[in-house]
Amino acid sequence: MDDGIIRVGVVGAGGNTRDRHIPGLREQNGVEIISVCNRSRESSERVAGEFEIPTVYDNWLELVEADDTDAICIGTWPYMHYPIILAALENNKHVMCEARMSMDAQEARVLLDASRNHPHLIKQIVPSPMTLSVDGAIQQMIAEGYLGDLISVNMRMWPSAFADFDSPLHWRQNRDLSGYNIMQMGIWYEGIIRWTGPASKIMAMTNVVVRKRKDESGVVRTVTVPDHVNILCEMASGAQATLSLSAVTGHGPGIEIWLFGTEGTLKMDGPPPLTLYGGRRGDSQLSKIDIPPEKQGGWRVEEEFINAIRGTEQITHTTFETGVHYMEFTEAVTRSAQTGEAIALPL
């Protein structure tokens, strides 16, 4: 970086990396993507050809250890995040890692400790994009007292999809690849953290409706990652929250989020970008809240990462600290579902 150029190596070039991270990084002034390592040499060379990346590695560690990179973009599945992040930090590289942060809370805490041992390096978890368009408006309205005291957050993610017993095993349904992560549960919880802060206690019930799926080699695998989840939360703020997520609710109502306070109510529905509605004590009904374009948040992950490396802004979306909250929550959901007990947070 002595010449002002930030050189980035990419480990794992899946759909989100190709659609967002590589183009987003290339849009930043003074950034070069110089290397890539994907799951196979063939796929690595395909990505390198598509984006004119000069160097292809067969081994991700060789890419991370190479002296020609300043930062590593990690786009692998969660099972690889832990070793790659640790290696990147140990090799003095800035890190932007795809969500989810890790496989479990223990890994996440080790990564947070490691990140604090390298305070000069920038560390970023790719944020949940689901609520970006409304986050700023909701945060401002809560801060200005629109809701009064927050009583309850109710979130329901029930897409119109019956259980598909013939679809192949996805990495999100493979615990060996996804760990404690369940569907998009943590991604939506991250939005709640932005508005109200984290949970302090949770109880959960889960169900695996589709119990068998074929993996990419045609072998039938037992599925243990739930496809239907109900969670009751006590928030650190004193409010309560209920989250219900499913991948098997035919003719379901879709996405609906409510924030109930002593003086007002906010509602969002989807799909993203979410539409925001509100009503206060004395109003006859909810009304749509139009957020001016300049007040709407949006995707600027790669810009924030590069600006943070240059020292012109700080990482807000998303820090390793928030990543730990996320992973503790996801692990607590599984622990509660398995034991039938309430699980206190932090773990």
Helix content: 25-40%
Secondary structure: number of strands: 17
Largest sheet: 9 strands, mixed
Secondary-structure-based class equals alpha/beta
Give the strand line-up of the largest sheet. Answer: 16-15-14-13-7-12-11-8-17
- The 3D shape can be described as globular
Which CATH class of the largest domain applies here? Alpha Beta
Q: Radius of gyration from the CA trace?
A: 21 Å
Domain unit count = 2
Would you spell out the secondary-structure blueprint of this structure?
Elements: E1 6-11, H1 15-26, E2 31-37, H2 41-51, E3 55-56, H3 60-65, E4 71-74, H4 81-90, E5 94-97, H5 105-116, E6 123-125, H6 132-143, E7 150-158, H7 175-178, H8 185-196, E8 199-207, E9 212-214, E10 220-222, E11 228-235, E12 240-246, E13 254-261, E14 264-269, E15 275-280, E16 287-288, H9 301-310, H10 320-339, E17 343-344
Parallel strand pairs: 1-2, 1-4, 2-3, 4-5, 5-6, 7-12
Antiparallel strand pairs: 7-13, 8-11, 8-17, 9-10, 11-12, 13-14, 14-15, 15-16
What do you see in this structure?
Helix content is 31%, strand content 26%. With 347 residues, it is an alpha/beta fold. A nine-stranded mixed β-sheet has the order 16-15-14-13-7-12-11-8-17. Strands 3-2-1-4-5-6 form a six-stranded parallel β-sheet, with helices on both faces. Helix 1 packs across helix 9, helix 5 runs antiparallel to helix 10 (320-339) and helix 8 packs across helix 10. The chain is globular, with a radius of gyration of 21 Å.
Name the features.
single chain, 31% helix, 2 domains, six-stranded parallel beta sheet, Rossmann fold, 10 helices, globular, Dihydrodipicolinate Reductase, domain 2, alpha/beta, nine-stranded mixed beta sheet, 347 residues
